Structure formats: structure tokens, C-alpha cells
Amino acid sequence: VHPNVSQGCQGGCATCSDYNGCLSCKPRLFFVLERIGMKQIGVCLSSCPSGYYGTRYPDINKCAKCKADCDTCFTRNFCTKCKSGFYLYSGKCLEKCPDGLEANNHTMECTSIVHCETSEWSPWSPCMKKGKTCGFKRGNEVRVREIVQHPSARGNPCPATTESRKCIVQRKRCQKEGKGKKNREEKRKKSNKDESKETRQESKGRAARRQNREQRENNNKTQPKKRKAPNKEQDLALVDTAH
């Protein structure tokens, strides 16, 4: 190593040499050796590169290499990300996960095995055949349940979510499509027609009675009063008295 030359240092170096680059760093920067061919050059960085972890000392801050299977690490014995082919578990990089755990190829970690979970069965559906609830004696009824937790790669698979069984019902005749509605409409029209007929008849009856009453009143006003018929017995008595 050539004598230190502090003048003209770049890249955060506190001291440097023309042959070895940085020899020490400014405060809070990390010193790390980078290999270029057969030569190592010192550089000063604000954070350690991938595959290294930082250590701080009173006189110098250094970047040290992680273990060979670590991609990034917090300390030499605690890995935070593994290289390809290894799975992270409790700060260690493993080729195979422990019992009770499974390898997650997406996160490259050992995770807990998740089994399938389903909801409770729904009530049985009405007895049906070919989508209808009439016109048959023997049909089928079904019930369903939902998946509330999908399994992981090594978890127990999900069971069937649909169940069917035979059923027997009292046979009933199916109404033709639109016939029931048509009958209801005809009944409604007939009812309205009957009500209208009764209303018209009542109106006619009231009008006729009113007309008869008015006619009788007019007749009483225009006809002279009838004279009272003489009493024949009284007339004979008067004749006898005269004689």
C-alpha cells in the first residue's frame, strides 16, 4: 500500500491511495473492498451492497460478506433473503424445509401448511326434476357449501361442495306456461264485468223508482179531488121524515 494521500480523494473517501482507492471513509459511510480482477479497490458507500452487512465501530464502519447461501443478511448469522435454491426460515437458508412446513416458491420461504376449510352445508333444495317442481314423482334435491380457505401446496385438498340425493314427492300436474296467468286475467275481467252489470242494474232500478214516484206526484197534482158518494141509507131516512 502506498503512503496515504488525502488530497484529491473522491467518492466519500477520507483518505485514499492511487493504487488501492479509499483507505478510510468519511463519517457514517461504510468501507468495502471491491475486487477488480486480481486487485481489490476500497470504496465508501452509504449502505452495504447485496451479499454484505454493515458493522459500525468507533474508528471505521465496514461491510462484511454474508454467508454463501445468503443474498442479503442482517448479520453473518441472520439471513434476510436467500439465494436461488434455498428457502428462508428463522434467519437461515435451507435446502429443505423442516417437518410441518412447506416451501413457498413465490417468496422462497418455509411457511406453515394450510388445509382447506369449508362452510356448513346449506338446507336441501326443493325436490326437482329437469328444473321443474311438478309433473314427476321421483326427483333430486341438492345442497351446497362454500370454500372459505383454499389449501396450500401440501395442505389437505377441498372436498366436494355439492351433494345430491333422491327424493319422492306427491305428483302434481304442471300448468301450461301462461295458462295460469291467462285464467287469472279472465277471472278478473269477468268479475269486473259482473260488478259493472250489477251497478248498471242498480242504477236503472233507482232511476225507474224515482220516475214512478215523480209521475205519481204529478198525477196527484193535476187530477181533481173525487166527490164523496152519497149515503143511500141517510137519503132514505130524510125522505121518510119528509113524508
From TrEMBL:
Biological processes per GO annotation: positive regulation of non-canonical Wnt signaling pathway; Wnt signaling pathway
Domain Spondin-like TSP1 stretches: 116-170
Cited Pfam families: Furin-like_2 (PF15913), TSP1_spondin (PF19028)
This protein's name: R-spondin-3
Organism: Phainopepla nitens
Cell location: Secreted
Disordered: region residues: 174-243
Gene: Rspo3
Family according to the record: Belongs to the R-spondin family.
Lineage: Eukaryota, Metazoa, Chordata, Craniata, Vertebrata
Keyword terms, alphabetized: Disulfide bond, Glycoprotein, Heparin-binding, Repeat, Secreted, Sensory transduction, Signal, Wnt signaling pathway
Residue stretches in coiled coil: none
